[in-house]
């Protein structure tokens, strides 16, 4: 079992400890995105994370949105790539695009 396959179990363990948790999942990619569809990242209420959705390129932005999702309960679809308005702020060095679905884990 790869590390990324353990993410749902890690999320469940954090929830069992009483922590609020959000799960981010890569739902689509284009070009040379560093992580495949299905890659996951779990974020707890302190901003601590485990897993990866991009190999470090966008994790900070995803953690920020995961914390917002835990606050308001609203799932989000995040899009990152060289052609969007965040390209200079948060981008994929490899030049691909990635969409990440972020949801609170109940």
Automatic annotation (TrEMBL):
Residues 15-81 form the XdhC- CoxI domain. It holds the Pfam family XdhC_CoxI. It comes from the Bacteria. InterPro entries: MoCofactor_Util/Proc (IPR052698), XdhC_CoxI (IPR003777). Transmembrane segments: none annotated. This is XdhC/CoxI family protein. It comes from Skermanella stibiiresistens SB22.
């Amino acid at each position: 079992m790869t590390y990324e396959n353990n993410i749902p179990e890690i999320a469940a363990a954090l929830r069992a400890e009483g922590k609020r948790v959000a799960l981010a999942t890569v739902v689509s990619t284009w070009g040379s995105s560093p992580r495949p569809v299905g890659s996951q990242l779990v974020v707890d209420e302190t901003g601590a994370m485990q897993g990866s959705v991009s190999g470090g390129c966008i994790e900070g932005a995803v953690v920020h949105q995961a914390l917002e999702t835990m606050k308001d309960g609203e799932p989000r679809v995040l899009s990152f790539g060289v052609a969007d308005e965040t390209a200079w702020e948060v981008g994929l060095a490899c030049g691909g695009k990635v969409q990440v679905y972020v949801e609170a884990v109940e």
